[in-house]
């Protein structure tokens, strides 16, 4: 339980910092971002200066530091963060590939859970998902829709969706703006409507959309209305609300999701990722404060902050 909140927490959304993630980098290249080249560095620098630095200042976050030279040391540092913040278990959704993710989980199997993360359009993507779950022990699959080579509802992907449904693992699908300041603002392949068409074809496969769907919040809510297997995770600063053409707050998002899709499809995540910031306790504190101000009952709080993750990840008998 968290030291001062008295609440059991399973965090559904963290990233393990491990240098270059080749799967993500390949997707960024495919999306036209060209990470690492001089032009991309200039674009990101121009955006980071006015926005990212201001955002870190507003939250009191230090500048990011490089990952530890040994990934084992980085992993052990995360255990200290989980202990200090009372987080029972953490789900890492990226960690530099499926094999490295399996190594990360194996180092602290009682506290860490991991997701596969590979290109669904790659040859034998279904076979790789099968290996990741049945041999490596991973518990789900993470995709960035804006970085894909085609839409989620492309019929050629049906074998991977069928495999995920048979294995009973959730699929976490990022839609909307990718990469924060200096990132990718839009993509032809990241609409919740694409996801809804897949969710209808595979009704027993749980999909989870992080960050409340970013700028696609309206389309996501309508997709979730039509597809009871679509869930929403709450992770991140959710600073994207500032860029919407109408006033929108985190309180509004929680209230609308709670009133429409209900507490059984809302899943807490922090989006913690880098040091020296470490575990982003302010995000947990703010989200829990909002839920309590909305007078969400304790039973529903338990579902949002741990129970739904336990159910989707099959952590309970």
CATH topology: TIM Barrel
Shape assignment: globular
Number of helices: 11
Strand tally, please?
8
Describe this structure in words.
The protein is of the alpha/beta class. The protein has a single domain (10-313), classed as Metal-dependent hydrolases (TIM Barrel, Alpha-Beta Barrel). It is built from 11 helices and 8 strands. The protein has helices at 22-30, 38-59, 71-85, 98-107, 125-134, 158-167, 192-201, 217-226, 250-260, 281-293, 298-313; strands spanning 10-15, 89-94, 112-116, 140-144, 171-174, 207-209, 230-233, 266-267. Strands 1-2-3-4-5-6-7-8 form an 8-stranded parallel beta sheet, sandwiched between helices. Helix 5 (125-134) runs parallel beside helix 6 and helix 7 (192-201) packs parallel to helix 8 (217-226). The longest helix is centred in the N-terminal third of the chain and has 22 residues, at 38-59. It starts with 9 loop residues before the first strand and ends with a helix. The model has no long low-confidence stretch (mean pLDDT 93).
């Amino acid at each position: 339980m968290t030291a001062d909140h008295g609440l059991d927490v399973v965090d559904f959304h963290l990233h393990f910092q491990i240098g270059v993630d080749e799967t993500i980098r390949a997707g960024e290249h495919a999306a036209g971002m060209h990470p690492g080249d001089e032009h991309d560095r200039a674009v990101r620098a121009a955006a980071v200066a006015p926005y990212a630095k201001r955002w870190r200042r507003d939250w009191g976050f230090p500048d990011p530091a490089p990952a530890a030279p040994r990934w084992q040391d980085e992993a052990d540092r995360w255990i200290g963060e989980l202990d200090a913040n009372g987080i029972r278990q953490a789900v890492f959704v990226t960690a530099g590939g499926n094999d490295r993710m399996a190594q990360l989980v194996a180092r602290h199997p009682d506290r860490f859970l991991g997701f596969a993360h590979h290109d669904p359009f790659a040859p034998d993507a279904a076979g790789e998902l099968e290996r990741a779950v049945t041999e490596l022990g991973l518990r789900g699959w993470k995709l960035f829709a804006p970085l894909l080579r085609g839409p989620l509802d492309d019929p050629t992907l049906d074998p991977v969706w069928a495999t995920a449904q048979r294995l009973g693992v959730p699929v976490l699908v990022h839609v909307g703006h990718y990469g924060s300041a200096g990132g990718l603002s839009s993509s032809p392949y990241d609409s919740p409507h694409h996801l809804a068409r897949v969710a209808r074809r595979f009704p027993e496969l749980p999909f989870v959309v992080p960050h409340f769907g970013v700028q696609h919040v309206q389309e996501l809510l309508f997709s979730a209305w039509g597809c009871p297997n679509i869930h929403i995770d709450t992770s991140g600063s959710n600073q994207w609300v500032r860029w919407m053409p109408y006033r929108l707050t985190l309180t509004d998002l929680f209230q609308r999701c709670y009133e429409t899709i209900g507490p059984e499809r809302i899943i807490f995540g922090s989006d913690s990722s880098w040091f020296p910031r470490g575990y982003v306790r302010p995000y947990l504190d703010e989200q829990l404060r909002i839920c309590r101000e909305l007078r969400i009952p304790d039973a529903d709080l338990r579902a949002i902050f741990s129970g739904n993750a336990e159910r989707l990840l099959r952590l309970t008998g």
